[in-house]
Amino acid sequence: MTDTQTNASTSGSSSPEADSGTITLRIWRGERDGAFKDYTLPAQEGEVVLDVVHRVQAEIAPDLAVRWNCKAGKCGSCSAEVNGKPRLMCMTRMSTLPTGEPITISPMRGFPIMRDLVTDVSFNYAVARRVPGFHPRPREADGTHRMAQVDVDRSQEFRKCIECYLCQNVCHVIRDHEENKANFAGPRFVMRLAELEMHPLDTLDRRRFSFEEFGLGYCNITKCCTEVCPEGIHITDNAIIPLKERAVDAAYDPIAWIGRKVFRRPEPASAASVAAHAPERRSGEVIVEN
Amino acid sequence: MPEYETHVVDVLIIGAGGAGLRAAAEATALGASTAVVCKSLLGKAHTVMAEGGVAAALGYVWPEDNWKVHFRDTMRGGKMLNNWRMAQLHALESPDRVLELEEWGAIFDRTPDGRILQRDFGGHRYARLAHVGDRTGLELLRTVQQRAVDRGIEVFMECKIIRLLHAPDGSVNGAVGVWRETGKFVVFGAKSVILASGGVGKIYKFTSNSWECTGDGQALALGAGAELIDMEFIQFHPTGMIWPTSARGLLVTEGVRGDGGILKNRDGERFMYNYIPDFYRAETSDTIEEGDQWYDNKRDFRRPPELLPRDEVARAINSEVKAGRGSPHGGVYLDIASRRSPDYIRRRLPSMYHQFKELADVDITTDPMEIGPTCHYIMGGVRVEADTAATTLEGLYAAGEVAAGMHGANRLGGNSLSDLLVFGRRAGLAAAERALGLSGEVTLDQNEVEDACIHALSFFDHDSGENPYTVHAALQDTMQDLVGIIRTESELLTAAENLKDFDERITRVSVEGHRQFNPGWHTALDLESMLALSHATTLSAIVRKESRGGHTRDDFPEPDAYWGTVNNASYIEGGVVKTKLTPLPEMPDDLKELFEEGH
User: Fold this and answer.
1) Which of residues 196-215 of B touch A (CB under 8 A)?
2) How far is it, in rounded angstroms, from Cα B258 to Cα B270?
3) Which residues 7-36 of chain A have a CB within 8 Å of chain B?
4) A244: closest CA of chain B, how far (Å)
5) Which of B417, B446, B475 is at the close of a domain?
6) Which of A70, A96, A118 is the last residue of a domain?
7) A158: which residues sit within 8 A by CB, 6+ positions away?
8) What is the CATH number of the domain that holds A37?
9) Which residues on chain B are in Cβ contact (under 8 Å) with A59?
10) B381-415 exposure pattern, b = at least 16 Cβ within 10 A, e = fewer
11) Is B257 tagged catalytic?
């Protein structure tokens, strides 16, 4: 059952079906043991879901807890599930949602609820601390790092990530299996390893780490993460699968690894200068500098 | 006495945007124990919204570029009101800061020979902005964030600082905060405190700024006894989205114009050619034909007027709309579709493409964008010493948008990301050196702590009072309508009167519910910062009787030589914001020569 609370400034219509000029948001209130509550407001043109949530906050429920920052799809704060679909509320236009029925807004299910639409995403920050950081090769003699655009396109795609954690939320390995969080870092952080692995300047080998510490083997490529990514990053095809291939096919062969890092393009001059700086591969445990 | 937990560190940094995290990296590298406190989650700071790039005279695209040209562009863009030493340090050091980001994992777009690519922006003589498509701020923030995480720097997330604390000698030695999640209090003791809390955009109705930009740092400094300067200088970015209404104010990067975009009125006229000020006439093209050749040949041709500094372009758009030549929703058109190929636009401006497609249903590769000015940046802020970022209060430092001086009366695009790296580092350095040089324990003033906590909780005691969201919206209306892009004395005086009403209304603001993650309460606390700064901005705008950069007075439309020699300082005396004029630091002769003919 849900409570219904209507904006006092409307003409008293509390049923969304009764008046096409109103909208009803069915928002989760409270903690784990909370409930959905309906809020009915007048419809306004050109709004996104977050606008309506803000109007609920400003006019009806001032203590409604919701995270947001930029309202421009750039910060990844306002992740939630809109009619069951993981979305950024700031990039979900009301006009794209079905009319005549309440719009359900619930917190991300993959994380513990703190209050209302706010969840405890500290898992992601804990995983981030375990990522073996970037270790560049030395600079060229002229003080630059030379990298061709074509060689950085892939890592740049992954660096578009706004850390909204919708991929983490929807990944079935951890969404309903809290116990797997100890073993699997989730798509966002597997992608971070792929980004570093494909970074032309980086010298660390994270292949063994990706399986042994971040549980790459847990992913069975259902592409749920890719489907929800608001940045349209091809997480599965471009990050996870290639990382699995590198790790498995190469069988930890250092020559093949350096070859992939360095000789991806047939451009002799650049390749030669890069090869001159090719580092000794560190094996075994990844060393994190402090 | 409300309960609280206590943490003691060498250096406390308030704000986890680019400046705060760069400061943290520096302080930690020197061996100072460092804590960063931020109002949101780590990685969400307003820095992520910077789009176009970071300005640095690397000279990769135009070898003619060097720090002197960048310095000159910055000072001229700031209408010579900049702190010359800050502008010099910034121009000298920004290339190193960009290369350092690359060393920490940032991946900028590349030139054909594999170096960092640089793009054109308004007011910059050469293509100078290192960038990643149109999401450079995200790249910068993620890089310093990952650096901080890699170095194990302690970050206290979702904590709002409500008061700075003083040692017996008057220096700053800590701060009181509220955890947003639990509503409980936390006290940080520190030998040095760095403000890196960003801007004040949320005092305006239409702004490109994010939720966090409520001027907390400026208000904390003012309340603690530090001086602010030049609070009247607010940058209205010429190109914000104006439709749909819910997206109004969202930034449309200057990179659109840097990459060839032009401005047109409803008649299709490229009106910027009618608005070239004398100050920039020598370096701006007279004809469309000349301007169009400049993108590829900067030696023989002069820039198109769409790439004048932001204050000039914003005023021109305002004038066109006022003259009845605006677009249907009250803006003008920004057109890149007719100038560049769809592939080029999607590659260079991916997030603009996405933003217009998702929010306005406009395909920018085929149709023009409707845009208008939006509150974007405050040039004024906490007065700092150029080399150390030290404020007028011992133990307190400020870097990034919260600090003032670097940009004078108007900031050039791209100079903000470089500013926060250059001065974030310098603040971290100076704050750590001070902290490591101090012996003895940090002694916290329990009375100050108690007073801050009791005050913060008082909003729960007011019954049936004012709704914090309603008061915020009303404050934004006052500032938008009366202290906006074009100002005049009668309106400013009305604003000052209105603000006195707000002083009274805010004492009646009441908060429903409990302390746990209560946005109504957070808004009430933010309102106090916003109101203090609205006073400072309005009063400073009344005092400065001239037009310069981000301060345009209808009743004093020209710049005035005298006003070009003074900073307008704000401070608190007897609980009230006051202003005084102080002399602008004078530039040494060898730098003055850069502004003479032939340079």
Assistant:
1) 210-212
2) 16
3) none
4) 22
5) B446
6) A118
7) A191, A192, A194, A195, A198, A233, A238, A239
8) 3.10.20.30
9) 469
10) bbbbbbebbbbbbebbbbbbbbbbbbbbbbbbbbb
11) yes
Are A63 and B518 in contact (CB < 8 Å)? Answer: yes
At residue A262 the predicted structure's pLDDT band, cuts being 50, 70 and 90, is low
Q: Are A283 and A127 in contact (CB under 8 A)?
A: no
Residue A172, CB half-sphere, CA atoms under 13 Å: how many? Answer: 7
Asked whether residue A60 falls in the same domain as residue A192, the answer is no
CATH code, domain with B212: 3.50.50.60
B109 to chain A nearest CA, in Å?
7
Instruction: Give the Cβ contact number of residue A290 at 10 Å.
Output: 8
- In chain A, which residues have their Cβ closer than 8 Å to the Cβ of B48? 70, 74-75, 162
Write the pLDDT tens digit of every residue in A264-279: 443 333 333 333 333 3
Is A146–B113 a contact, with Cβ atoms under 8 angstroms apart? yes
Contact B149 A67 (CB under 8 A): no
CATH number for position B330: 3.90.700.10
Q: Would you call A72 an interface residue with chain B, using a CB distance cutoff of 8 Å?
A: yes
Instruction: Encode chain B (599 residues) as per-residue pLDDT tens digits.
Output: 789 999 999 999 999 999 999 999 999 999 999 999 999 999 999 999 998 999 999 999 999 999 999 999 999 999 999 999 999 999 999 999 999 999 999 999 999 999 999 999 999 999 999 999 999 999 999 999 999 999 999 999 999 999 999 999 999 999 999 999 999 999 999 999 999 999 999 999 999 999 999 999 999 999 999 999 999 999 999 999 998 888 999 999 999 999 999 999 999 999 999 999 999 999 999 999 999 999 999 899 999 999 999 999 999 999 999 999 999 999 999 999 999 999 999 999 998 999 999 899 899 999 999 999 999 999 999 999 999 999 999 999 999 999 999 999 999 999 999 999 999 999 999 999 999 999 989 999 999 999 999 999 999 998 778 999 999 999 999 999 999 999 999 999 999 999 999 999 999 999 999 999 999 999 999 999 999 999 999 999 999 999 999 999 999 999 999 999 999 999 999 999 999 999 999 999 999 999 986 55
Domain span at residue B108 reads 4-235+376-446
DSSP B333: E
Q: Is A144 exposed, middle or buried (0-12, 13-18, 19+ CB in 10 A)?
A: middle
What is the DSSP annotation of B8-29? EEEEEEE--SHHHHHHHHHHHH
Do B454 and B447 touch, CB atoms closer than 8 A?
Answer: no
Q: Smallest Cα–Cα separation from B329: which of B237, B247, B234, B236?
A: B247
Contact B426, B389 (CB under 8 A): yes
One domain for residues B268 and B229: no
* A162 min Cα distance to partner chain B (Å): 8
| Catalytic residue selected from B237, B376, B472, B553 | B237
> Are A91 and B150 within 8 A, CB to CB?
no
DSSP line for B98-145: HHHHHHTT----B-TTSSB-EE--TT-SS--EE-STT-HHHHHHHHHH
Residue B151 lies in a domain: yes
Torsion angle of C-alpha atoms B474, B476, B480, B485, degrees rounded to 10: 160
- Min Cα distance A22 → chain B (Å) is 17
To the nearest 10°, report the CA torsion of A205, A209, A215, A221: 10
Put simply, the chain A residues between 79 and 108 with a CB less than 8 A from any chain B CB are 91, 93
**Does the distance separating the beta carbons of B520 and A147 come in below 8 Å?**
no
- Please pick, among B257, B340, B535, B553, the residue that the annotation labels catalytic: B257
Q: Which of residues 124-183 of B touch A (CB under 8 A)?
A: 132-133, 135, 138-139, 142, 146-147, 149-152, 157, 181
Q: How many domains does chain A have?
A: 2
